[in-house]
Specification:
Helix content: under 10%
CATH architecture of the largest domain: Sandwich
CATH class of the largest domain: Mainly Beta
Strand content: over 45%
Oligomer: single chain
Largest sheet: 16 strands, antiparallel
Number of helices: 3
Number of strands: 26
Radius of gyration: 21 Å
Distance between the termini: 46 Å
Length: 383
């Protein structure tokens, strides 16, 4: 379908582009990236249920457009009047599963943009908007321990979540039935804890973020943190075990501090119980350098029993496409990784150096030849 619109002194042909939402049970838009012209329209058609098309990135909706959560057969359209790069996401599946899309609007003479404008400044480096890790949460040394760093600058408002029961809707066969979340300072002292998120005194603030867990047994903490190192510990209530997800969201991109890195330690199993670390880059349009690491043998020096003997690492984009993989870090990019000062201390550990555009990415840690044990996945956004 096409209609005529006037652009300047001439006539341009405006076109409607079609995007499928959740086709064949997938948690993705197809295509997830399209390039159009100012005045063109994108029409999304639902091929699955419980999805949305929401402008921005998870935790940072811009208000430019929002379909609401719709079901199979529904449609939603939006006309893009100005040039720029526009990210959008699915509210239920953007943070957990990387269901994110991009519309790039070409053209050199943009018309006035609706307010607020989501167009990222191409001169501003992207920063970490969200970091998450899905893994098998056991007991003792094998609980999930997620570390985040707030870089130097102002205080940073963040939301932490521990997800378990709702993972069953995404095909996880053994989700953690009742996760408990603890937030610790760098010295190990307990800042706060939460079991069921609706019991949190700041429940209303959590709901206002649009990121409240979908299951009452899941946990959430909202805090304003000084720059420094923090640890989020996820365990099962009464020693329960299962697959869980620990997440951190940046709720204030206006301050100078940032989410500097993600690190999560936990048990690395096989099949669907490997360790899956996700991160979203945004808030700026410029590419940034990252280092992703998978550690195992070196954890033994810190008293960890049952460390993963030989980790492997894969880095995927939002469509699931493999960007790069690595087994032993010295086998590739040794010079680039050593230049960052982040090289692993054991030759059997893995590392990847990449320059990434804004978007969603996934790091998968497994054991070579299906080895299992305690591993650590880390994602560093370099200055």
């Amino acid at each position: 379908m096409a209609t005529l619109i006037f652009a300047g002194a001439g006539i341009a042909l405006a076109t409607t582009f079609n995007v499928d939402v959740g086709a064949s049970g997938s948690l993705m838009y197809s295509p997830s990236f399209i390039e159009i012209q100012p005045g063109d329209t994108v029409k999304w058609t639902w091929k699955g249920t419980n999805h949305s098309v929401t402008s921005g990135t998870p935790g940072h909706a811009t208000g430019l457009f929002d379909s609401g959560i719709k079901g199979n057969g529904s449609t939603f359209s939006f006309t893009f009047p100005n040039s720029g790069t526009f990210l959008y996401f699915c509210i239920p599946h953007g943070s957990c599963c990387g269901m994110i899309g991009t519309v790039m609007v070409a053209g050199s003479t943009p018309t006035p943009s609706p307010s607020p404008s989501p167009t990222p400044d191409p001169t501003v480096p992207a920063q970490s908007l969200n970091v998450s890790t899905r893994l098998d949460v056991e007991t003792g040394d094998q609980v999930s321990i997620g570390g985040i760093i707030i870089t130097e600058g102002e205080v940073k408002k963040v939301l932490l979540r521990a997800i378990g029961p709702s993972l069953a809707a995404f095909g996880v066969s053994d989700p953690l039935p009742d996760p408990v979340l603890e937030l610790h300072a760098g010295d190990g002292s307990l800042i706060t804890t939460n079991d069921n998120w609706k019991d949190n005194p700041e429940m209303a603030d959590i709901e206002e973020t649009g990121l409240a867990p979908s299951n009452d047994l899941e946990s959430a903490i909202i805090e304003t943190l000084d720059p420094g190192l923090y640890t989020a510990v996820v365990k099962g209530e009464n020693g329960a075990t299962g697959v869980g997800l620990v997440e951190a969201y940046d709720l204030d991109l206006s301050v100078t501090s940032q989410l500097g890195n993600l690190s999560t330690r936990g048990f690395v199993g096989t099949g669907t119980n490997v360790m899956i670390g996700g991160f979203i880059l945004g808030g700026g349009g410029k590419e940034v350098d990252v280092v992703v690491r998978a550690l195992g043998p070196s954890l033994s020096a810190f008293g960890v029993t049952g460390a993963l003997a030989d980790p492997t690492l894969e880095l995927h984009d939002a469509n699931g496409t493999l960007i790069q993989d690595n087994d032993n870090w010295k086998d590739m990019q040794q010079t680039e990784i050593e230049a960052t000062g982040l090289e692993p201390t054991d030759d059997l550990e893995s590392a990847i150096f990449e320059t990434l555009a804004p978007g969603a990415y996934t790091a998968i840690v497994a054991g070579q030849e299906d080895l299992t044990g305690v591993g650590l996945v880390e994602v560093y956004r370099l200055p």
